[in-house]
Amino acid sequence: MNDGSSGEFAVERRSPEETFALLGDDTRIGILRALGETPDDARSFSDLRERVGTEDSGRFNYHLRKLVGSFVRKTDDGYELTYAGRQIVGAMYAGTYTANASVDAIAVPGECPLCDGPLEAAYAEETATLSCRECEEWFNEFSFPPGSLDQFDADELPLAFDRWMSHVVDGVLDGFCHICAGRTTGLLVLDDDDRPFATYPAHVEFTCGRCGGSVRTAPVTPAFMHPGTRGFLFEHGFDVSELPSWAVWSAIDLPEVAVVSRDPPRVEVTVTAGDERLVATVDADASVSDVHRVGQ
Ligand SMILES: [Zn+2]
Ligand SMILES: [Zn+2]
């Protein structure tokens, strides 16, 4: 918030109607694509016009000028994408607005951490799922950009989905919405009856204050993302930045979650690896306030 107490900053907002209307033209999309090919280098007017392939210099200039100030910036070296311009080009690559894809269920090597059943990965309607074919308890569902699919062979997709899920959760735990970059707020919710995650007595939710986007996961997730836990697992031979999450979960005892306070809600997550245990405390705002190891 800019309350004037420490360092002034100004944010100028334009209407989305006006800004997105600028994109309804092939030449302008061509300009953004051409600048997106070398996002770190500015391009001269003539170079850019040649790349886009517009003969009429006056017409090209008209369209380029429409984009300057929103998606394109003019510098001493030429034209380059603004942050918003990069986001538009990124969205075109990710296929968020343009691609439609589905992937039939793929068998995932490994087994369900909860019931040892077979796992599968699938993709439809821009949503990836990683789930167990036998129990309904191991079930992960999340958005995955369709334009990213064809960068992977089918047998690479389960790990790609898992990495993406971890990447999204990591960003959300750091306080940024994965959809709009708004600020997220975490909440630890105690579940007395309906237990959505692996019969744990609580779950965590992160909600964006701007777009309402949210992520729900087990309280084990913030505990696992904590550097103390990652180090603990690494020392026991599990590099969580390399191994798929189901492989780590299968290799260790299922983490335990105990409610230690109801008001405010607080849980302790116990992770056991080898002959050592680690206890992480998850607070009411879904942050991890303490991580310590306990002797057997
Ligand atoms: Zn299962
Ligand atoms: Zn948001």
Automatic annotation (TrEMBL):
Gene3D superfamilies: Winged helix-like DNA-binding domain superfamily/Winged helix DNA-binding domain
Protein name as catalogued: Helix-turn-helix domain-containing protein
Annotated ranges, domain DUF7347: 16-92
Entry-linked InterPro entries: ArsR-like_HTH, DUF7347, DUF7351, WH-like_DNA-bd_sf, WH_DNA-bd_sf
Domain DUF7351, residue spans: 110-288
Source superkingdom: Archaea
